[in-house]
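Hypothesis: this fold can be encoded by more than one sequence.
Test: take the structure tokens below, design a sequence, compare later.
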């Protein structure tokens, strides 16, 4: 292949960066140049690089009240002081964020506007525009995680913050891992050229040669339209699974929880009824042959009274069985409450 597997650019292979640039221009109308893009080994690498670049000791970084534990640990590892902002079905509460900005010199905020992690809420267009205005007013950076944003189940696909940004305050991170497979550790960052240069410099220290073979393979999949076709097919499958899970939650679990509305992502969020004992639910679920993840992982400062139910890896029969086990768990707890 005329020495195409030899990569000397820390920003990643040119062929993949061009393919990503074309994809972003076509899909979201993003006006960017090759020097605004660098290739990553997944979105986590991009988050770490952005945190390393932005944070000095005790800088204030804002994350959503419920958030991914690995995101919080990444920022803390880089010396950040974490602040938490409340959010609802339309995104973060801008009034709460502004109060934080008034009381603290906020350096950056991390958001997942296409499907808030873990609730799945989609940030409204007004909320996105308001966040950008606050970023300009209080001089902070927005780290936008767009991983999995392709999985939207509505035609009203909202534009990402990076596309709305006119002042170069957004660092956009995304990945192909959820599209293809977790073993495809290929992601990318879109940011101002100064940010990309700093990140490329750090990449030479931790991933000097990259993975040119994998990058060329993903580029060919993009250029041939195979990834686009795969996403279209996947959305149909995931939407059927989401619809099935939604129906089961509403018909079988209504007395135990409330389903949060979500038109994006690969999981659904349920708020648990007051009589459900969240501190015991993991052990009670195991008794019903159901494996649940530690629900308080999504918050360090408050009790979480909800569950994220992933559906992407389950077929319809497995989803039905999982809901049956979850219902048995809730009924087991309810029986204990009645006996008490």
């Amino acid at each position: 292949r005329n020495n195409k597997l030899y990569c000397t650019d820390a920003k990643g292979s040119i062929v993949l960066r061009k393919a990503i640039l074309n994809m972003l221009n076509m899909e979201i109308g993003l006006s960017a140049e090759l020097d605004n893009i660098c290739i990553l080994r997944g979105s986590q690498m991009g988050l770490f690089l952005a945190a390393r670049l932005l944070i000095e000791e005790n800088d204030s970084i804002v994350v959503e009240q419920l958030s991914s534990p690995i995101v919080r640990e990444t920022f803390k590892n880089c010396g950040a002081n974490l602040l938490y902002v409340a959010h609802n079905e339309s995104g973060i509460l801008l009034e709460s964020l502004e109060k934080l900005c008034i009381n603290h010199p906020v350096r950056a905020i991390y958001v997942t506007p296409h499907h808030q992690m873990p609730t799945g809420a989609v940030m409204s267009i007004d909320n996105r525009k308001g966040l950008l205005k606050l970023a300009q007013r209080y001089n902070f950076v927005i780290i936008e995680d767009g991983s999995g944003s392709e999985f939207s189940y509505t035609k009203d696909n909202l534009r990402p913050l990076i596309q709305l940004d006119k002042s170069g305050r957004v660092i956009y991170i995304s990945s192909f891992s959820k599209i293809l497979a977790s073993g495809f550790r290929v992601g990318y960052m879109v940011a101002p050229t100064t940010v990309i240069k700093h990140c490329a410099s750090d990449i030479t220290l931790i991933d000097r040669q990259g993975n040119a073979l994998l990058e060329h393979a993903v580029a060919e999949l993009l250029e041939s339209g195979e990834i686009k076709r795969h996403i279209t097919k996947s959305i149909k499958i995931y939407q059927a699974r989401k619809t099935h899970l939604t129906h089961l939650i509403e018909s079988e679990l209504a007395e135990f929880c409330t389903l949060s509305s979500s038109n994006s992502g690969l999981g659904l969020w349920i708020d648990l009824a007051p009589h459900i004992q969240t501190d015991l639910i993991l052990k009670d679920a195991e008794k019903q042959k159901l494996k649940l993840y530690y629900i308080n992982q999504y918050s360090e400062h408050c009790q979480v009274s909800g569950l994220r139910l992933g559906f992407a890896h389950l077929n319809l029969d497995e989803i039905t069985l999982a809901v049956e086990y979850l219902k048995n768990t809730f009924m087991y707890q309810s029986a204990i409450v009645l006996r008490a």
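The chain has eleven helices and twelve strands. The chain has two domains: 14-224, 228-339.
Hypothesis status: open.
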